[in-house]
Automatic annotation (TrEMBL):
It comes from the Bacteria. SUPFAM superfamilies: HD-domain/PDEase-like. This is Phosphohydrolase.
Amino acid sequence: MDHIAIADSIAAAAHAGQLDKAGLPYLGHVRRVAAYVDPANAEAAVAALLHDVIEDSGITAAQLAEQGIPASAIDAVERLTRRDHVPPDDYYRRIREHPIAREVKLADLADNTDPERMANLSDADRARLTSKYAHAYRALGADFGDGAERRARANR
């Protein structure tokens, strides 16, 4: 079973018509995140493709399991799903404790902090998000340099 192809299909359906903060198709974001994870870690690629599916669509973890998505990838996606009642420090702690979730979140941050993408934002949004992403990197024990390294590695 090709879990990556299944995850890509689920992501394409879940994010159909959605746009990112720069006004571009959201599916491009999740595919870039998948390209930024360790290429030897297929479950990280699956989780990367699905990292916003529960948060941004009506798809549930149970439905992902029914589609054959591995439990470890689903666990990562659940940890990456923001919940209103979970304080940010708890959110990042749960991600830090799960190697796949941490790998995916760092890849997500790499795409979100891409200078070309940031250039498409208003000055106010860019300043707000730069602060937010810096906090996220620190909470995960990394820094902005991690994002640049991931983008460079994926573009080789």
